[in-house]
Amino acid sequence: MALGRQAKTLSKHQVDAIFLHVGSARNGTRNQLILLLSVRAGFRAKEIASLKWYMVLDANGEIGDHIHLTDNASKGKSGRVIPINTHLKSLLEKHFDQRTENPIFFSPDDYVIQTERSMRTSPQAIVNMFQKWYHELGFVGCSSHSGRRTFITNAARKISTVGGSLRDIQFLAGHSSLQTTQRYIEGDSEARNKVVNLI
Fold it and tell me: Model pTM?
C-alpha cells in the first residue's frame, strides 16, 4: 500500500468523538464495541465480523483478559492472542450482559457482533459502518483501517516503555513480516525533533 493511500490515524480527540457519536445512536453499545475492537485491539474488519464469544470468554464463562483470535477468523495465518484493553473489556462485559439476558438463546459459538436481522454481520458491513461514521463527523481520509493503524502506531510508540520491541507489535498486529508492521506506523515529527537534540 503506497504511503499516500494509507488510511489516516486517529487522534485521541477523534476517537473520543466517534465513541460518543456512535454510542448515541441505535445499537450504541454494539457500535462502540466495533470501534474499540479496531482502535484498542487493532482488528481488521473481517476479524471484527468473525469474532465469537468463546474467543473472549475464560474457563468460568466470563470475559477473560485475552482475545484468542483463531486463524479462520483472521487473515491467512494471522490468528493471535491479544491482551484485552481495560476499556474494551468493560464494554465487552456490558455487551455480554445484554446478550445473555435470555441464556436460552445464547451460545459461546455466537458471533459477538450481530445485526437486528442476522446472527452475524459481514466484513463489508463493518467497512460501510466506519465509512458512514467518518463521513458524518467530517473525518477526511479515514477508513475501516484507520483504527488498526492507530492501534499499531500508538502501541509502537509506547512499547519500549514497558520493555518490549517492534517484534511484540508485529505479533499484536498479526503480521507475518516486520516490514509490514513498520509500514503501518505513522512517524512523529515532534519526536524526530526531540531525538536529534539528544544526540
Answer: 0.88
